[in-house]
Every structure is written in structure tokens, then in C-alpha cells.
Automatic annotation (TrEMBL):
This is Dioxygenase. Residues 41-253 form the Extradiol ring-cleavage dioxygenase class III enzyme subunit B domain. Keywords: Dioxygenase, Metal-binding, Oxidoreductase, Zinc. Belongs to the DODA-type extradiol aromatic ring-opening dioxygenase family. CDD domains: 45_DOPA_Dioxygenase (cd07363). It holds the Pfam family LigB. GO terms for molecular function: ferrous iron binding; oxidoreductase activity, acting on single donors with incorporation of molecular oxygen, incorporation of two atoms of oxygen; zinc ion binding. NCBIfam families: PRK10628.1. The keyword Transcription does not apply. It comes from Flavisolibacter tropicus.
Length: 277
């Protein structure tokens, strides 16, 4: 079967729309944001009402790393509680959004740079459901997750995202979920309840990231290790940063950029989020 024939067989029947769907990078922060009514979750809820209603949501989460690339392809993805030490209430959450196996296959065929495997075991981890359940509380919009291949580098992830661009034309909301500044080893746990607290280095590099994003200097963001010691403190491991690169890779030439939830928490984390389009 030719690639075109395979594509036609598995088409999700999503039609191109007049309005190009925005792309989001969301700083998801603590899993507790999934059940708390706070400034971050309220902004997610408002964002769900502000942007066009999507035909489906595709999340690239910091919490699904794999060798190779995988995409959830089940009818109803499970809610994954991939954390420990939180209140019972958080573990009882079930976000019962449907999946979309046909869209999963269509997406895999778009990603010509990767051999994408259909996954029936994962589901929606907390990088996905803690955000999406506030945006779409009725769980009536299909939600899929695309894994991050941990064997690849930043340029690969940025370039791979570009192959997803046509999904924006079909009303698919693509969300990168992580945190720009994410150093759990340096968290000031006694400051977590303060409305905003960031170490000088965290605020400095977060502002630098925003400047580079706003000016379209993606090459510098891909080569973040060259941005100095502050960047290395912000990104001790890259999994929470990679979703930002997927979001940036999906930017079109005419897309506007705005920031939301632009705050630091616990000294060494930032919730800064980006809307493109």
C-alpha cells in the first residue's frame, strides 16, 4: 500500500478550517493544579473559552518519554496518576475524554522523520489531564498524546514539530506541556505558598527565554546550553523544556505571540506559558 493510500485509509475526516488553530506551551507545574482553583487553573479555563473550540487536542507532555516516538491510539485513554505523595482527592480524578485512533494514524503518517508506533498502553499523564480538564471540563473533545523520543536532541524535536503544522489547519489544538524553568532540586519548599517567588537566576533566564521567543530567535532557544549557567540551572534535564520547542516549531510566519501565567513559584520553577496564533 502506498503512503498516500495508507493516508486515505486512515484519514480522521477532519476538514481544513478557515481559522488556523493556535498552539500553546503550558507551564503545568504541580499536579495539584489539576484540582485546585487558583490563578493558573483559572487562566487555563479562560483559555479554553477564548480560543476556537478544537476538533481534537494533541499534547506533547514532559512526562511521556520513550525510545522512539509513540502516539496514543485507543478509543478511551486512561487517566494516569504518575506522581506520589499527594492527597487522595488527586488520585481519584478520572478525566474520561475520548481518543481518536484515526487521527492518531493520520498524525503518524504526517511525521515522516519518525517511525511512529501506535500506543494502546499509555493514556493521559498529569502533564496533559491536569491542564486539559480545566480547559474542557466536559471531557467531550478527543485528547491524544505524542511521546518525546529521549534519544534525540533539541533540533530534532523542533524540526519534528514542523511536520504537525497541517493539523493546525484542521482544528487540532497542539499543546506542549512542561516548564521553561524546572529545577526541582533547588525548590524553596517553604516558599511554595507565596504568590510569586523566584531566584534571581530563574527570573533572569525566564526573561531571556521570553525575549528570544518574542523576537523569533529559535536557534538560540534550541542551543539553550550556550545561554550560560542560568540556562543550565533552569534546565538540569531537558524533558520539561522540550515541549516548548515543539510549540515553537509550529509557529507560522504571521502568528502573534503572547504570554500568560507568567510567574515563578518555589524559587526554581516558572509557570510562564506561551500562546502562538
Amino acid at each position: 500500500m502506498t503512503t498516500l493510500a495508507a493516508f486515505n485509509q486512515f484519514t480522521s475526516e477532519l476538514k481544513e478550517q478557515e481559522t488556523l488553530m493556535p498552539v500553546l506551551f503550558v507551564g503545568h507545574g504541580s499536579p495539584m493544579n489539576g484540582i485546585e482553583d487558583n490563578e493558573f487553573s483559572r487562566t487555563w479555563k479562560a483559555m479554553g473559552k477564548q480560543i476556537p473550540t478544537p476538533a481534537a487536542v494533541l499534547v506533547i507532555s514532559a512526562h511521556w518519554l520513550s525510545q522512539g516516538t509513540r502516539i496514543t491510539a485507543m478509543d478511551f485513554p486512561q487517566t494516569i496518576h504518575d506522581f506520589g505523595g499527594f492527597p487522595k482527592e488527586l488520585y481519584e480524578v478520572q478525566y474520561k475524554a475520548p481518543g481518536n485512533p484515526a487521527l492518531a494514524k493520520e498524525t503518524s503518517l504526517l511525521l515522516t522523520s519518525a517511525l511512529v508506533e501506535m500506543d494502546h498502553d499509555w493514556g493521559l499523564d498529569h502533564g496533559a489531564w491536569t491542564v486539559v480538564r480545566h480547559m474542557y471540563p466536559e471531557a467531550n473533545i478527543p485528547v491524544l498524546q505524542l511521546s518525546i523520543d529521549y534519544t534525540k536532541g533539541p533540533q530534532y524535536h523542533y524540526d519534528l514539530a514542523k511536520e504537525l503544522y497541517s493539523l493546525r489547519k484542521k482544528g487540532v489544538l497542539i499543546i506542549g506541556s512542561g516548564n521553561m524553568v524546572h529545577n526541582l532540586r533547588m525548590v524553596a519548599w517553604d516558599k511554595l505558598n507565596e504568590s510569586e517567588y523566584g531566584y534571581d537566576w530563574a527570573l533572569q533566564i525566564n526573561n531571556k527565554f521570553k525575549e528570544l521567543i518574542g523576537n523569533g530567535h529559535h536557534d538560540s532557544l534550541i542551543r539553550y546550553e550556550s545561554l550560560g549557567k542560568e540556562a543550565l540551572l533552569a534546565i538540569p534535564t531537558p524533558e520539561h523544556y522540550w515541549p516548548l520547542l515543539y510549540t515553537l516549531g509550529l509557529k507560522g510566519g504571521k502568528d502573534a505571540i503572547s504570554f500568560f501565567n507568567d510567574k515563578a513559584v518555589g524559587g526554581s520553577l516558572t509557570m510562564t506559558s506561551v500562546k502562538i496564533g
